[in-house]
Write a structure and sequence with these properties.
The complex is a heterodimer of chains A (225) and B (439).
Chain A: H1 2-7, H2 11-25, H3 65-69, H4 95-107, H5 125-134, H6 142-153, H7 158-168, H8 172-181, H9 197-216
Helix pairs in contact in A: 5-6, 5-7
Chain B: H1 27-32, H2 37-58, H3 70-79, E1 86-91, H4 100-107, H5 109-123, E2 127-133, H6 137-152, E3 168-174, H7 183-190, E4 214-218, H8 219-237, E5 240-241, E6 244-245, E7 247-253, E8 258-264, H9 269-274, E9 285-290, E10 296-298, H10 309-314, E11 323-328, H11 333-347, H12 353-370, H13 378-392, H14 396-400, H15 403-411, H16 413-421
Parallel strand pairs in B: 1-2, 1-4, 2-3, 7-11
Antiparallel strand pairs in B: 5-6, 7-8, 9-10, 9-11
Helix pairs in contact in B: 2-3, 2-5, 2-8, 4-5, 4-6, 5-8, 11-12, 12-13
Classes of the chains: A mainly alpha (225), B alpha/beta (439).
The complex binds flavin mononucleotide, iron/sulfur cluster and FE2/S2 (inorganic) cluster (FES).
Chain lengths: 225, 439
Amino acid sequence: MSLLTGLVPGLGMVKGMALTLRRFFAPKATVMYPEMPADVATKFRGRLQLLYDEYGGLKCETCFQCAQACPIECIDMGGMDTKGRFHVHWGPPETYGERREESALRRSGRTVPDRAYEHFAPFDIETVDEILERFDHDPKRMLQILEDTQDTFGFLPVAALKRISERTGAWYATIYGTASYYGHLRFEPPSAKAQSKEVRARRATDQGYLDALGASLGGKSRGDA
Amino acid sequence: MSTILSSAKGWPSILLARAGASKPADLDDAIKAGAFEALRRSVRELGPEGTIAEVKASGLRGRGGAGHLTAAKWQAAAETPAKERYVVANGYGADPATSTDRTLLETDPYAVIEGVAIAAFTIGAETGYISVRASATQAIKGLETAIEAATARNFIGEDALGSGRRVEIEVRPVQGAYMLGEETVLLKALDGKRGQPEQRPPHPATRGFHGAPTVVQNVQTLASVPWIIRHHAKAFGAIGFGAAPGTILVDVRGPERSGVAEVPMGTPLEAIVELGGRFAKGRSLKAVVVGGPTGGILPPSELKTPYTFDDLRSVGAHIGSGSVIAADDRACVVDVARLLTRFSADEACGKTIPCRIGVRRIAEIGERLTTGTSRAGDLDLLVDLSADVVGSALCDHERLATLPMLSGLRYFRDELDAHLLRGECPAGVCRPIRLGATA
Ligand SMILES: Cc1cc2nc3c(=O)[nH]c(=O)nc-3n(C[C@H](O)[C@H](O)[C@H](O)COP(=O)(O)O)c2cc1C
Ligand code: SF4
Ligand code: FES
């Protein structure tokens, strides 16, 4: 080959251009993070997320316990990069003090003045209570409670989860954890355009697997090429 | 309902004996065929010890994949001191491409119900659950009708068989994840929790549902029990293969036919593949995928392997979901392995690091191979990483998820090398592969 390259003038350049051209049309390997989210497991728990209480306030009391518990110190509540490491801010640091006050108020039983108040969409509390009644308010039947709630509303409204938590005594976080694991449960109406990538991915697995299996095992779908 | 493949002449029929019955959920029909004789014998004659002894003598091993001795589980559950105990029939059928368990539930619900009742009497449980995939509506309806009929005739219920014991059986449809087939995950789902496995031991047999001793058993295992008690352990032991007697359901996908068949344990893989028919002229068998999504990919040279738990493990596959898929020469082994591993990675529960990250990295090695973007040392990484995942995994899922790629490496090294070193896909399946292969 190299002999030929030496003999025919310009062949090297042609080859080079051919490579450039092929690479140009090849799928790009660069992932444009964060515009394109990286491909992580759909059930990956690395997402850091703060929960809101029923008044729309953040439930985080800025107690620093999560920062202390994190074995690789990737959570830093103070927003101060003490060791020059990757860290996470829970909102602007100026609000930490306020949030602590909020918690103190709440603990003392007084109403919390809430700037960011935004009520959950109204929902039919009686229907949820009926479902709970049917399952005896038993947290051990949580999946059936959630499934029936979803059948009624088309999805699991956050306010309904709160109600279920209140009446069954199961922690909201536990219920949320259960609901977010099962592929058939969802938090948005099925029509929601912005259905998360996660939900769509989960829904497609079984069928996607069967289709791909059929195609890659010399099935009809692949043709005889 | 899936097709039931007619099996070779002379193969015994235990699990699918009632296949073809016009009304599988009709109690009178079932009784004519011998249903509940074994329960009566177990309760009235054998008692718990006698029943365990009979099951032990039969050598019955679990059909759910791992092949544990059934009698050992029952004994452990019966011996563990506890206020309550449970029996859970695992009819979930995690592999979306197989329908063995669903077929059994549809053709003979009474065999499973009787098996659950016998297990409940034997270990001292009052409640038995039969968990079924929520989409298997026909099986669920059949089971519900059958349970109602059996309760009305007092085979089960408040005072089952007049023994003074309560044995209630309930159907529990579950759905939403592949991992629900794993026993500790299934128990979590029945308990309304997030479906992630638990460390074993303690095994569910000593600490399971609600912390109580729980016998979790595949539905085929349970359906074999009444037959064993009716025909005696010896007759069962005579079928199949010494270390793994009895029959098992397989889901065969072949060039001409696909469906469920009942085969004696120890049948050579070859005979099972033949149930799927012959390849068209010019096509030939290239590989057999044995065990479902986490199965091994075996070459034709391993077709003599007897279909048993231990023999399949030793060649790098496993019984798993009971699936046996024949792939012809158009299939690319690397592509199939990549596909299976990707499915396993997507379905892994995310609880532990080998699960959440390990399987995903293995899937990526497969994806790099099939797109011509492999890195130096990828095969070493595959071997190392697989060993680490197997060594540190919490549940069997991630251990088994290493099998497709490892068996591909073991038996189809040429094809792997073609992808890796020459950037070629001999089967012509992996399209963009030539990209990285120039210069
Ligand atoms: C990922 C995974 C999926 C499983 N899926 C099933 C299943 O669908 N059905 C089943 O009976 N066992 C399944 N098993 C095996 C169960 O964990 C368990 O061993 C079995 O139900 C016990 O019953 P046996 O002793 O009768 O086999 C699965 C295991 C794993 C690790
Ligand atoms: S403890 Fe910290 S490092 Fe570990 S998974 Fe949670 S957030 Fe990540
Ligand atoms: S699948 Fe997550 S621990 Fe096994």
